[in-house]
Write a structure and sequence with these properties.
Layout (H helix, E strand, L loop, with lengths): L1 E7 L3 H11 L16 E2 L2 E2 L6 E6 L6 H4 L1 H11 L2 E6 L3 H9 L5 E3 L2 H9 L4 E7 L9 E7 L16 E3 L5 H13 L9 E3 L3 H10 L5 E5 H9 L4 E8 L3 E5 L4 H11 L4 H5 L7 H6 L3 E2 L7 H9 L9
Parallel strand pairs: 1-5, 4-5, 4-6, 9-10, 9-11
Antiparallel strand pairs: 2-3, 6-13, 7-13, 7-14, 8-11, 8-12
Helix pairs in contact: 1-4, 4-5, 6-12
């Protein structure tokens, strides 16, 4: 079963900075604040052998609630309780994985890269499929307010640009890579952050703080369809992974790989799990991927050495 108790990520920025200074620790910080994480079958857990701690990237309001059917399914396939680690921001999610406070994470391509750089010993189980019948992957959409005269990324120069946040794959990293290809560098004083994808798309639609920007397709497309935004271009992004700690017992890892790779909406409903609107409209399963699938992110960070979030 899945239970609703929360493990709160406190002081994540400080903790992540400490991880970066110390490198890969041989003993992950336990989730209970001092006791060694219990072991079973030559593996370790963030909390105990009966519980899996699940961290979800807070990229929109209610992200934990939207992931509850996934948590219920994980509980079904493993026979364990699933608790959410409450990540207050992207950094808290990274820290939870790097410190061993979370067993499983549903994150982004960029936060997978950042988590590994921070010392997380994790592997992708699968990557999110956002359209029925498609392969894993989604789009970063360059958007503009209808009042804007911009027709290409080159026209984004010398004006405020709305991004999601500095740790966002489709809302910051990929956009900056594409802007650089177009010969555009956005100075810090012209970077506006909406923090979450829906809020960022809304900022561009409002047009007060910025008239151009970027958001993921699931949030940009409805506003484009309604005429509140116009599309300038879109760029394919490696799909958001669901990851596990390599330190988990082998039988737990086997259950997670077997149950999640190739899973679909039907996999959940067949077990009596009700899908919410978020999953019905934007999650169609997890496709199998490996670590090499995310080499694109490494390449982009090498292209953007001055992006603070790319630094180890």
């Amino acid at each position: 079963m899945r239970i609703r108790s929360r493990l709160l990520g406190v002081g994540a920025g400080v903790a992540l900075a400490a991880l970066a200074l110390t490198g890969c620790s041989t003993d992950p910080a336990p989730a209970d604040g001092g006791k060694a994480a219990p072991a079973a079958d030559e593996g370790t857990f963030a909390k105990d052998a009966d519980t899996l701690v699940f961290v979800v990237l807070p990229d929109h309001e209610g992200s934990d609630q939207d992931a509850e059917p996934i948590a219920d399914y994980i509980a079904e396939i493993t026979g364990k309780k699933v608790e959410f680690f409450e990540a207050t921001d992207y950094t808290a999610a990274i820290q939870a994985l790097a410190s061993g406070q979370a067993d499983i994470g549903q994150i982004s391509a960029f936060t997978y890269y950042q988590s590994k750089n921070a010392g997380a010993d994790i592997s992708p189980i699968g990557a999110q499929i956002t359209k029925e019948g498609a392969e894993p992957g989604y789009y970063s959409v360059a958007i503009k307010n209808p009042a804007s005269s911009a027709s290409s990324l080159a026209d984004f120069a010398d004006q405020p640009v709305c991004f999601v946040n500095p740790e966002s794959t489709s809302g910051f990293l990929i956009p900056n890579s594409q802007l650089l290809k177009a010969g555009v560098t956005v100075p810090e004083d012209k970077q506006v952050f909406g923090e979450k994808h829906p809020a960022t798309a809304a900022l561009v639609a409002e047009g007060a703080q910025c008239q151009v920007g970027f958001a993921q397709d699931i949030d940009a497309d409805p506003l484009i369809a309604s005429g509140q935004l116009e599309e300038v271009d879109r760029y394919l992004v490696p799909a958001a992974p669901i990851v596990l700690q390599n330190a988990l017992p082998q039988d737990v890892k086997d259950a997670l790989f077997a149950g999640l790779q190739g899973s679909t909406q039907k996999s959940l409903t067949d077990k009596g799990i009700e899908l919410n609107d978020f999953l019905l409209n934007g999650w169609f399963g997890f496709g199998a991927v490996d670590d090499a699938y995310y080499d694109t992110i490494t390449a982009v960070c090498e292209q953007l050495p001055d992006v603070e979030a790319c630094k180890a």
